[in-house]
Specification:
The protein is an alpha/beta fold. It contains 25 helices and 21 strands. The longest helix has 40 residues, at 100-139. The chain is elongated, with a radius of gyration of 40 Å.
């Protein structure tokens, strides 16, 4: 294999040399091959710069394509060979060390742009030539009509020497004369064209207006028209042309003849079809891609209310694991096999399979009973995935999750349909995968709302849309208010006040829980300082703040807490951080280390929702907690009399265990006086719930504390 030159200029020169050698044999130029190479070198440099530019500029490719026409590279083979050279050598010699996949994608887009620029420039050049010929023909129409004008020699030279086909027919459509270029286009002798009638040259792909325009012209209602038209050659092949037909009048203005100028566009059309195929089909699997699928879906959805459709959105389960463990080559082979199986499932009329990208596929069906048909299609797809795929001696199990959308055309846009299918597919995946689910408008609305809340979270924190309510913590022995739990709320502009269950999981998922949690801690500690200043008590009200698992893993937790306490002038003993039991199940020493440091400083650590995490009770000894918050599920039966004796025994045992470990016990969800009394008898230390007060503004807690002090 020939080594690639070291220097960028050397590599660029090598690419220009290869390009000139490929194109020069089919170029009509007086330049020598080295001179022609020098003309291509600036074009090669522009392609190299466009390949490595920060932002892709299609205009560069178009200008290079147009420059080929200016360099007399007008033969279709010149474009084809240029595109082949760019495809094979541009990335190799000019890509340097850039990401190969991105460079190949940009190289393909440059080829498309070059083809478009070449076609446009060739078209403009041809039209200019046609106009020149038309002007010459019009100037010579007296010669044709009267055979008296002295310019027939000039007209004959243009007629016979033109590179485009020229034909003259009478107003009845009988072909009177054609030039050599037109004969070569049709590929037969003169008798195959001359003497025929224009009306015989119909083709199945003729646009409806072609023959209407023709009738208007021969009737004298139109001077000329321009269309794209196909003709059958004698051997049965198809000739595609850009056809311009003009009306020739005599000296008195009476219509006499029709003049046809014909440009052969067959090769260009084949190239455009190839480029169109590449632009609308997936290079790996050969399936229609996202572009073609959206075109088809939009056509189906705009077909009228009588049209129904069904769509299956498939995502392979665990495909990333295959890519990571076996490599992308194995992943690609798996995708090809899956594509073949899906293609075999969609064989009925109106059914289509496409690859959207990655491991995501869609299948579309249409018909009056689309609900039944799409269910059957989804079942066929699931059955097709059952058999393992054998790759490199391994049998890989293929699983997939499918979201199904079915409905009537005209009710939703393509983007809405695909979004619903995507949401439904993820619902199937979250339910365990390897199944299909039918779209549910309510579930879609919830998912869309969740997405909207997720995207609005960062701005909401910056705009100050969050606020905190406080629920009192009451001592069960004497009924005094000992502190409060801080509960964050979101005052959403559209949805009103949202509780933490609506947005805390979203904040956890996005990582925004860390700045949000820091803000809650800072506001709550400041409020504790304000309560102390207003009450004047030596022992300040304790504030309880929830910590999420994400915050526990954040390296700045301890330092942030210390900084907030110091800035507010609040002692660590006035703060209690609540951590859910599930977050500490199986926690290692690294996770517990920051909690231990906070506990050593004097901050209380409460184990929230105790009893719901199925943790080993013996683990309590190694956790740096000082408070157990008993989940309300253990005390709900105490709202009625008599209480369930089993629940009483369980609570009594937990309280006894906690006290033996020097842990205080707090109970959530206290709603009746009988419940509060029962918990007091069982030895619980503090409680909170609607029986005492609902979460509210900080002033309410201040009033409760003052009332308790006066009482």
């Amino acid at each position: 294999m020939t080594a690639v030159p070291d220097g960028p200029e050397d590599r660029l020169r090598r690419f220009a040399t290869i390009w000139s050698r490929a194109v020069f044999p089919v170029t009509s130029t007086s330049l020598t091959r080295p001179e022609f190479e020098e003309r291509l070198l600036p074009l090669a440099r522009r392609l190299s710069q466009a390949l490595r530019a920060r932002a892709f500029d299609a205009e560069t490719g178009k200008e290079v394509g147009a420059a080929l026409v200016d360099a007399h590279c007008t033969d279709p083979d010149a474009l084809s060979r240029s595109l082949d050279c760019v495809d094979a050598y541009l990335v190799l010699y000019c890509g340097e060390d850039g990401p190969q996949e991105d460079l190949r994608t940009r190289c393909s887009r440059l080829q498309h742009a070059m083809a478009a620029g070449f076609a446009q420039a060739l078209r403009e050049r041809t039209l200019a030539e046609q106009e020149a010929i038309a002007r010459a023909a019009l100037q010579a129409q007296g010669v044709v009509a009267q055979a008296l004008h002295a310019s027939e020699a000039r007209f004959r030279a243009v007629f016979e020497g033109a590179a485009i086909g020229i034909g003259i027919a009478d107003l009845e459509g009988n072909v009177l004369q054609v030039n050599g270029a037109m004969l070569r286009m049709f590929g037969g002798g003169e008798q195959t064209v001359r003497g025929r009638n224009v009306r015989e040259w119909t083709h199945a792909d003729d646009a409806p207006q072609v023959w209407r325009l023709y009738e208007e012209l021969v009737c004298g209602e139109r001077e000329h028209y321009h269309v794209e038209k196909a003709f059958y050659r004698p051997d049965g092949t198809v000739l595609w042309t850009n056809l311009t037909v003009s009306l020739l009048r005599d000296a008195d203005g009476t219509p006499q003849y029709q003049l046809a100028l014909m440009e052969d566009t067959t090769e260009r059309r084949l190239l455009n079809l190839r480029l169109r195929y590449e632009a609308t089909h997936d290079a790996l699997t050969g399936l229609p891609n996202r572009t073609l699928f959206f075109e088809r879906l939009e056509k189906v959805l705009s077909a009228g209310e009588d049209q129904r459709f069904g769509l299956c959105y498939l995502d392979l389960d665990g495909f990333k694991t295959i890519n990571d463990s076996l490599g992308h080559a194995a992943g690609d082979r798996l995708l090809v096999e899956v594509a073949d199986r899906l293609q075999s499932c969609a064989t009925a009329p109106g059914e289509m399979v496409a690859r959207l990208g990655g491991d995501e596929f869609v299948a579309l069906t249409t018909g009056p009973d689309s609900r039944g048909e799409v269910d059957e299609l989804a079942a066929r797809i699931m059955n097709a995935l059952v058999a393992p795929v054998r790759i490199d001696g391994r049998e890989l199990t293929v699983r997939g999750s499918i979201g199904i959308v079915e409905g009537r055309a005209g009710e939703r846009s393509p983007a809405e349909v695909l979004r619903s299918a995507d949401i439904t597919m993820y619902r199937a995946k979250s339910a365990g995968g390897n199944r299909f689910e039918l779209a549910d408008p309510e579930a879609d609305a919830r998912a869309i709302t969740r997405h909207g809340l997720t995207t609005a979270l960062p701005a909401a924190l910056e705009r100050g849309e969050f606020f905190i309510e406080y629920q009192p913590l009451v001592h069960l022995g004497d009924g005094s208010v000992r502190g409060a739990e801080a509960l964050v709320r979101w005052l959403h502009p559209q949805h009103g006040v949202l509780g933490p269950d609506r947005f805390i999981p979203l904040a956890e998922h996005t990582g925004l829980i860390v700045p949000l949690g820091r803000w809650v801690l800072e506001q709550s500690v400041r409020q504790a300082r304000a309560w102390r200043e207003r009450t004047g008590d030596d022992g300040p009200l304790r504030i309880n703040v929830n910590l999420s698992p994400c915050q526990l893993n954040h390296p700045g937790l301890v330092q942030d807490t210390v900084d907030i306490l110091e800035r507010a002038g609040v002692e660590p003993e006035a703060l209690c951080l609540e951590v859910t039991e599930s977050a500490l199940i199986g926690a290692d020493d690294d996770l517990l280390k920051p909690l231990r440091r906070l506990a050593e400083m004097g901050v209380d650590i409460a184990l929230d929702d105790f009893g719901t995490g199925y943790s080993n009770l013996a683990n309590l000894r190694r956790l740096p907690v000082s408070v157990l918050k008993l989940d309300r599920s253990f005390t709900q039966s105490m709202q009625q009399f008599p209480a369930d004796p089993v629940d009483l025994k369980i609570v009594e045992g937990i309280v006894s265990l906690a006290h033996s470990l020097d842990l205080a016990v707090t109970v959530e969800g206290v709603e009746t006086g009988a419940q509060a009394e029962q918990l007091r008898v069982l030895g619980c230390d503090t409680a909170q719930g609607w029986y005492y007060a609902r979460p509210g503004p900080p002033d309410r807690l201040h009033e409760l504390a003052l009332a308790d002090a006066r009482g």
